[in-house]
Specification:
Blueprint: E1 9-13, H1 17-28, E2 32-36, E3 48-51, E4 55-58, E5 63-64, H2 69-77, E6 82-84, E7 90-95, E8 98-102, H3 104-118, H4 122-125, H5 134-137, H6 143-151, H7 168-181, H8 191-199, H9 205-213, E9 215-217, H10 220-230, E10 236-237, E11 242-247, E12 252-256, E13 261-264, E14 266-269, E15 280-282, H11 287-295, E16 302-309, E17 314-317, E18 326-333, E19 338-345, H12 356-363, E20 372-376, E21 412-414, H13 428-453
Pfam families: Amino_oxidase (PF01593)
Protein name: Monoamine oxidase
Domain Amine oxidase: 17-442
């Protein structure tokens, strides 16, 4: 005899890309969903805002690509369009007290040899880039390869350059690139993350650059996350922080910051690793999970937008001890006779994102004739609800880090870019992947449970 049962319900914590697509997927299966977002807006670490005199700029995630399968599906689904960042005329890179100058091609050539070394073994370690642990999980893996794979999670991303015929200029150039890429010090950066990026880019540094620094959305990230949110029928509660999660094998209880409690069959938590310390868990997180939350990831950097006087088509790099590690022109403002540049650095305390003098000092590393008119950004590391920019990995964290959040015996599930198996941490593609995969697994589990109760 069948007994009528209530519709399954799921809470989604966080209205970034992962939370939004998870909510959409869950609703498509007939599950009741409520989204709780601590901020006063949706988008998470993707945030299209107006800065520097009303110009539409990305405070967080920016670039997309058709070889990123999950975000490209959403771009296609919602009829969004892309356009390229501008080609660059002049390149500058710093080593010691010397500033080199050339074309963007010259810079690419200088960088290609060190990148080839840094990405070495990516094909062996990641034969299936969207299944990064395949070598470990495959019982037929050669023990020697497995040992090399595990060893590659130790040390620094630049260690491989120190024993060969690479010059200090080569090392400084690589440090410039990866200080920006890891959004933190290269000295503590796991070599495996760089190799994984390479594997996701057909093991070619040129394609890696194209995927992460070339194409932007015509209507910004806002055009995409607003479109996804519009397809969600359930409530998206803004300014609603979650303070506590009680999770069991059959359900969850959420306590909000205002003290109210709510119950559901499951919760999908999409908060970044850097924000998990602000939520109480009962039972507590596992020891490996808590270890990562306490240690934090390698992400301590920043992104800054800088408007300078005149037309300047430049790309520039400087090692991580400088405030900005990577700088490039993004927008040419003919009506203002100005250029807007975007910059990335490894230490968010090394620059004041909204201070012209601070930005000017950073740009003077390369040229003394770039006059800063305005600057701005968002300090994601200092932001309570992120605690980091994208989640890059410290030495040892590829094996002893984010993968600890994959398995659970309760109805608490983690999702988000920080936990993606593909583009982990760095781009929107990973956030969407994680949201979809987590939601679909939960749908299967809740559907099976619902069927067992009604038969």
């Amino acid at each position: 005899m069948s007994t009528a049962q209530k519709t399954p319900s799921v809470f989604v914590v966080g209205a970034g890309f992962s939370g939004l697509v998870a909510a959409r997927e869950l609703e498509s299966a007939g599950i009741d969903v409520c989204v709780y977002e601590a901020r006063d807006r949706i988008g998470g670490r993707a945030w299209t805002d107006e800065r520097l005199g009303g110009h539409v700029l990305e405070m967080g995630a920016t670039w997309v690509h058709w070889m990123q399968p999950f975000v490209w599906t959403e771009i296609t689904r919602y009829g969004q369009e892309i356009y390229p960042s501008p080609d660059i005329e002049d390149a500058y890179w710093v080593s010691g007290d010397t500033v080199r100058r050339g074309t963007e091609h010259d810079l690419d050539v200088a960088l290609s040899r060190v990148q080839e070394k840094i990405l070495e073994n990516s094909r062996d370690f990641f034969p299936y880039p969207h299944d990064p642990m395949r070598v470990v999980d495959d019982p037929t893996t050669d023990p020697e390869l497995l040992a090399r794979f595990r060893s590659a999670d130790n040390g620094s991303v630049l260690d491989c350059l120190r024993d060969g015929d690479f010059t200090q200029e080569d090392i400084d150039l690589a440090d410039s690139y990866w200080s920006a890429g890891y959004q933190g010090p290269t000295a503590t950066a796991s070599p495996l993350m760089a190799k994984h990026w390479g594997a996701l880019s057909d093991h070619r540094s040129s394609l890696m650059d194209e995927q992460t620094l070339r194409f932007k959305l015509t209507h910004g990230m806002r055009g995409l996350y607003d479109s996804i949110a519009a397809d969600i029928r359930g409530p998206i509660a803004l300014d609603t922080a979650v303070a506590r999660i009680v999770h069991t094998a059959t359900g969850v209880e959420l306590t909000l910051a205002d003290g109210t409690t709510h119950h559901a069959d499951a919760v999908v938590l999409t908060a970044p690793i850097g924000a998990l310390e602000h939520i109480e868990f009962d039972p507590p997180m596992t020891a490996p999970q808590q270890k990562l939350v306490t240690e934090k990831t390698n992400s301590s950097g920043f992104k800054i937008w800088i408007k300078v006087a005149g037309h300047h088509s430049v790309i520039a790099g400087a090692p991580g001890e400088h405030p900005i590690s990577l700088l490039r022109s993004e927008y040419f403002l003919d009506d203002e006779n100005a250029t807007i540049l975007v910059g990335f650095g490894s230490d968010h305390t090394a620059i004041d994102l909204d201070d012209v003098a601070s930005a000017q000092k950073a740009l003077d590393v390369w040229r003394g004739d770039l006059t800063v008119l305005d600057c701005g950004g968002h300090d994601w590391v200092a932001d309570k609800w992120s605690g980091q920019t994208w989640a890059t990995l410290k030495s040892g964290q590829f094996f002893e880090g984010w993968s600890a959040f994959y398995t659970t015996d309760t109805r608490l599930r983690f999702a988000g870019a920080d936990f993606a198996k593909g583009w982990n941490g760095v781009v929107v593609d990973g956030a969407i992947e994680s949201g979809i995969v987590t939601a679909r697994k939960l749908i299967g589990e809740l559907s099976a449970h619902h069927r067992s109760l009604t038969t």
